[in-house]
Write a structure and sequence with these properties.
With 329 residues, the protein is of the alpha/beta class. It contains 9 helices and 15 strands. The chain has helices at residues 47-51, 126-138, 155-166, 178-186, 201-208, 222-230, 260-263, 280-292, 309-315, and strands at 3-7, 20-24, 34-43, 72-79, 89-92, 99-103, 107-109, 146-149, 170-175, 191-194, 213-218, 232-240, 267-270, 300-304, 324-328. Strands 3, 4, 5, 6, 7, 14 and 15 form a 7-stranded mixed β-sheet that branches. It binds NADPH dihydro-nicotinamide-adenine-dinucleotide phosphate.
């Protein structure tokens, strides 16, 4: 019997196990144009926390007592769609379950080649695209500039570090703990701040960037955003990608340095990766060149088993992952 995770209660603050249930999916035959997919890899992502709240946003909230969804890759095991025969490797959005029934139009075939399928849930998929367009289009980062990126050991952040280095920028990353900071250095960052260390972030960033930063790629918000405001150079650009520090918070973020936006003429712009779907070819070309050049390290943290999907998701908020957090089925 196929199983799927369901949201059964809207979390208050950090989600807990009682907010979710792993339930059987009712069995049914395929309709014309549908395929049955055995999922092999599931993506868990911080944005899913926002979908657990009953608020209007750029993606609809998860419905209560319904199967949750999210990025997944798998293999067609039954087909009533002529162009998706059994055995086709595909990507789709019916994740959080082991088996999915999806209309053919909701499925993308994965390319043939040596790249492992799960890479399309990470650096070669929306994660990499978020890093690419956030850095190069939203922040308009240029060779020679100094870029600060938070959650630099995470999926998006580690891609930002490597794209920025490939484009000749000076990179300052921040991550939690010695092992992660060491790893961020190993993928090319010029300076790495351990934000869980003893030095306050504003001071640590000042030491790493004595002349200030030109670009801030924000994955975290909160104190990280405040430190970036404190050290922004004239005309700095901030790509506001995510604010994970606030996703489970009950109190609003306080920014002591917000007024620097005025005097330093800072441009802050939020974005959603889907804004750039029309330019996906630029990403494939540019990222393809970086990967082919052998200078890109694709890191994954893999949790095994559908029953551990929730642990993987919650692990994003305690920094359990290095690179992309994935569930292997
Ligand atoms: P990550 O792989 O970066 O995982 C989350 C990481 O965030 C953790 O490993 C942890 O690393 C860090 N973190 C968690 N809580 C905190 C905190 N309170 N303060 C500082 N760091 C914290 O996830 P993604 O790469 O998938 O996503 C990164 C950000 O980008 C998220 O905010 C996400 O919502 C956003 N995003 C936005 C998109 C868009 O279209 N705008 C698309 C995709 C992602 P550590 O151990 O270093 O603390």
């Amino acid at each position: 019997m196929a199983k799927a995770w369901h949201l059964v209660r809207r979390p208050n603050g950090m989600p807990v196990a009682e907010d979710f249930a792993l339930r059987d999916l009712p069995a049914r035959d395929l309709a014309e144009g549908e395929v049955r997919i055995a999922n092999r890899w599931l993506s868990v992502d911080p944005y899913m926390r926002g979908r657990m709240n009953d608020v209007k946003s750029y993606v609809p909230p998860f419905a209560l007592d319904a199967p949750m969804d999210g990025g997944a890759v798998g293999e067609v095991i039954e087909s009533r769609a002529a162009d998706l025969p059994v055995g086709t490797r595909v990507q789709h959005m019916a994740g959080w379950r082991d088996e999915a029934i999806v209309p053919a139009k909701g499925v993308q075939k994965l390319p043939e080649g040596d790249i492992p399928d799960q890479a399309y849930l990470g650096a070669l998929g929306l994660t990499g695209m978020t890093a690419w367009f956030g850095l190069l289009a939203v922040a308009d980062a240029k060779p020679g500039e100094t870029v600060f990126v938070s959650a630099a050991a995470g999926a998006v952040g580690s891609s930002v570090v490597q794209i920025a280095k490939a484009r000749g920028m000076t990179v300052i990353g921040s991550a939690g703990g010695a092992e992660k900071t060491e790893w961020v250095r190993s993928i090319g960052a010029d300076h790495v701040i351990d934000y869980k260390g003893n030095v306050p972030l504003v001071k640590a960033l000042g030491a790493a960037a004595p002349d200030g930063i030109d670009v801030y790629f924000d994955n975290v918000g909160g104190d990280h955003l405040d430190a970036a405001l404190a050290h922004a150079r004239q005309g700095a650009r901030f790509a506001i990608c995510g604010m994970i520090d606030g996703y489970n918070a009950s109190e609003p973020t306080k920014l002591r340095y917000l007024m620097r936006v005025i005097a330093a003429r800072i441009r802050m712009q939020g974005f959603i990766v889907s804004d750039f779907m029309g330019r996906i070819g630029e990403f494939h070309q540019g990222m393809g060149e970086i990967v082919a050049g052998g200078n890109f390290q694709r890191e994954e943290t893999v949790v095994e088993g559908l029953e551990h999907t929730l642990d993987a998701f919650l692990g994003l908020f305690s920094g359990r992952n290095k690179g992309k957090m994935l569930v292997k089925l």
